[in-house]
Amino acid sequence: MRKKIVAGNWKMNKTLEAGVQLATEVVNIAESELNNGATVVLCTPAIHLSAVAGVLKSGKKVSLGAQNIYQKESGAFTGEISAEMVKSVGAGYVILGHSERREYFSETNAQLAEKVNLALKYNLTPIFCCGETLAQREAGIHIDFVKSQLSESLFHLSPEDYAKVVIAYEPIWAIGTGVTATSQQAQDMHKELRTHLASKYGKVGENTSILYGGSAKPSNAKELFSQPDIDGGLIGGASLVARDFIDIAKAF
Ligand code: PEP
Asked: What is the pLDDT of residue 179?
C-alpha cells in the first residue's frame, strides 16, 4: 500500500543532548497536532539511536531510523554498524544509498543491493535513495540513470521483499541547495519511476511509496505532496527544526 511518509535525515548534526531535545519537541508536537495518518520517521546519527528510541516511546506517532548500515552481517569491520545492531536499538527504518554516501563514500549500486538484503533480513524498512546530478539532467540522461539505480540495487528482490521498500527520489542538485525541483519536475520523475517499478513488480511496484527529497520545507510541501505520484518527503535541513518538520508532515 502507498503509505504517506515524512522522514527526517539529521545527517551529522546535533550533540546527543541537542538530539534528544529535538526528538522530544518532535514527539510533543506530533502527538498534539498530527492527525492525518502520516508516518513520521527520525533518522538520527547512529550514536543517538538508543537515546532517541527512549524518547519516542513517550508517543505513538514517530518512528526511528538509521542513516546507513554496513553491507556485511558482522565481523572485523572496525567502525561500522550492522543491520542487526540498528534493529536491536529499536529502529524500524534505514536510509540507504543517500547521494552523500554515494559521493563521499563511493557506495555502488552493487554494495547497496547487499545493504538492502541485510536491512530486509533484519526487518528494517529501507528508504532507498536515488537521484541524478544537474549535468545528467542537462544531458537528458537523468531518467535512465535513476531507473538504473533502482534496477541494479533492487530488482533482484522477490516481490514479497520488494514490497517492504520505500523509495526516495532526491535530485542531487536540489539537496541542501535551497533549490527545490518544481512540483512538475518531481511528479514527472516519480511517474517514470512508478512505471519502471510496475514493469518489474506489477501491482506491488505500482504501490511503492515514493518520497521526494531536496530542499523541501513547510512552504513547498503542500504543493509537492499534492502531486499524484509523490507520497511524502525525505527532509534534510528542515528536519532539524521540530516545528518545520511537523508542519511538513501536516502538509498532506
Ligand atoms: C537530504 O539530504 O536527504 C535532503 C533532502 O536534504 P535537504 O532537505 O536539506 O535538501
From this structure: 86
pLDDT band at 248 (very low <50, low <70, confident <90, very high): very high
State the total domains in the chain. Answer: 1
- The pTM of this model reads 0.98
How many whole angstroms from 174 Cα to the centroid of ligand 1?
Answer: 8
Sign of the CA dihedral with 82 first, then 84, 85, and 87 last: positive
Q: What is the spatial distance between Cα 171 and Cα 131, in angstroms, rounded to a whole number? A: 4
pLDDT-derived band at 176, boundaries 50, 70, 90: confident
Residues 6+ apart with CB under 8 A from 152: 109, 110, 113
The amino acid at 79: G
Q: Is 244 in the pocket of ligand 1 (CB under 6 A)?
A: no
Which residue segment(s) compose the domain that 213 sits in? 5-249
Work out the percent of the chain whose per-residue pLDDT is above 70: 100
Sign of CA dihedral 238, 240, 243, 248: positive
CATH number at residue 69: 3.20.20.70
**Which residue, by CA, sits nearest to atom 6 of ligand 1?**
236
CA distance linking residue 203 with residue 213, whole number of Å: 24
Q: For atom 7 of ligand 1, which residue has the closest CA? A: 236
Atom number, ligand 1, closest to the C-alpha of residue 216:
8
Q: Is 211 in the pocket of ligand 1 (CB under 6 A)?
A: no
Query: Does residue 237 line the site of ligand 1, with CB under 6 A?
Result: yes
Percent of the chain clearing pLDDT 90 (strictly above): 97
Residue 178 has pLDDT above 90, yes or no: no
Nearest CA to ligand 1 atom 3: 236
Which residue numbers are catalytic?
Answer: 98, 170
